[in-house]
Write a structure and sequence with these properties.
By secondary structure, this protein is mainly α. The protein has two domains: 81 residues, Four Helix Bundle (Hemerythrin (Met), subunit A), CATH 1.20.120; 42 residues.
Amino acid sequence: MTLKVLFLLVALGAVVGAIGMLSSPNPVHSALFLVWTLFCVAAVYLLLGAEFLAIVQIIVYAGAIMVLFLFIIMLLNLRRDEFGDDPLPGQWTWGLMFSALLAVALVSVAGAAVTLKFAGDPLTLTPIPEIARVLFTKYLLAFEIASLILLIAMVGVVVLAKRPKEGT
């Protein structure tokens, strides 16, 4: 099996997982579809020769972040009937129109992207110790701000989704 065919299979798996995530009415099933999609993205990283990024993708996103998402989903105990049948009128129509527009844009630039060549071996371009040194020295403030924004977003979701106690 050639590398191109393997890439197409993994990319198709990622697209199927993303569609399943968006179309599933159950939030836990959506989170599991997202885990599938994240594993497919890690497989793409492996095919590109970026083993470190694949491991980080699996450990950080498919592992830690998804456990956190599932914990929050189960903590909030969301029910489908609380949202109604169609929260946004015409959402499928607009979604399909924007998807078609995105597909046309991606197909139009795909020819140029295929002809790009890499400058060298990925392991010699970005060594892992250099990534760690730069991340925790030059970009430490941005790294901490990103983690703080994620924490604020999680607390905000819990506060907004918290149900008022009955009788108050």
